[in-house]
Amino acid sequence: MNVLIIGLGLIGASLAKTLKKNTNHTVLGWNRTESVSKRALEEHVIDRTGPLEELLPCADITFINFYPNAIVPFIKEYRDFFKKNSIVTDSCGIKTKICRELENEKFDFYFIGAHPMAGREVSGYDNSLANLFDEASFICTPYSDTPRNKTDALVGLAQEMGFARTVVTTPEHHDEMIAFTSQIAHVLACSYVLSPLAPNHSGYSAGSYRDVSRVARINADMWTELFIDNKDALVREIDDLVSNLMKFKYCIVNEDADALHDLMEKGNKIKEEIG
């Protein structure tokens, strides 16, 4: 099978390296900066590159690895070049906006939204890894009328690649859960390091500082799009977080030790139960 990776940055190149490591599929690759494509070819990260007009008609599965707002325009622009009955997917961290914008388009291929759940605090081809997706989840969000064999093919490829878990869900449920498991953590981390005390942390910080602040190292261009494109779900999570912070503040201001103790016990119990 021919698998085409469009966009050879951190995620795209890591997908290509994972495919080469764990499968026998032919890996095609393309990047807007041609020198990156040539380097990937020289380093055997991909098997073939070339113009999109030549690669797209050959690909049984195409992964598009762009920022959120570039995915739909790209698919529409090249709609006539994708192989008939092939699978076109993406790796974007939000699904509803992309999937619903493409849902009513009449394509000769099948678009299935996807999200390989992994990342790093750094970006670009140079930081890609063949083991980035080890122990990771692969989420896909087919339409209700997507043929089962097409969804199975994408899930099967993810399993071949070594993803530890595959999840099939709706775009809306994906975005709701990602707002909680990922996006709110980045909002919290960025808010945390905006404290005027943050520059003076050295000598006073240990594991807690590192754990909470780690994902404040963020690609602001990409995450701005992700946050706004998932604004409804993310704002709900921010509201819940602010409400819980205010509960802690109230207990501390009023020196209500019993209520403060109960809040922490409740949090501790939940974390022990859910992991």
If you had to describe this structure to a student in words, what would you say it looks like?
The chain is α/β, with parallel strands linked by helices. Helices cover 50% and strands 12% of the residues. It is built from 11 helices and 8 strands. The protein has helices at residues 10-22, 34-42, 52-55, 68-77, 96-102, 148-161, 171-193, 207-213, 220-229, 231-253, 257-274; strands at 2-6, 26-30, 61-64, 87-90, 110-111, 113-117, 137-141, 165-168. It has a 5-stranded parallel β-sheet with strand order 2-1-3-4-5. Strands 6-7-8 form a 3-stranded mixed β-sheet, covered by helices on one side. Helix 5 links the parallel strand 4 (87-90) and strand 5 (110-111). The two termini are 38 Å apart. The mean pLDDT is 97.
Give the CA-CA distance, first to last residue: 38 Å
Assign the structural class, choosing from mainly alpha, mainly beta, alpha/beta, alpha+beta, or little secondary structure: alpha/beta
Radius of gyration: 21 Å
Biggest sheet strand order reads 2-1-3-4-5
**Looking at the structure, what is the overall shape?**
elongated
Helix-strand pattern, N to C? EHEHHEHEHEEEHEHHHHH
Could you report the average pLDDT, rounded to the nearest whole number? Answer: 97
Q: Count of DSSP E strands?
A: 8
Query: Proportion of β residues?
Result: 5-15%
Largest sheet, described in full?
5 strands, parallel
Low-confidence stretches: none
Helicity, in percent?
Answer: 40-55%
Number of helices, where a helix is a run of at least 4 consecutive DSSP H or I residues: 11
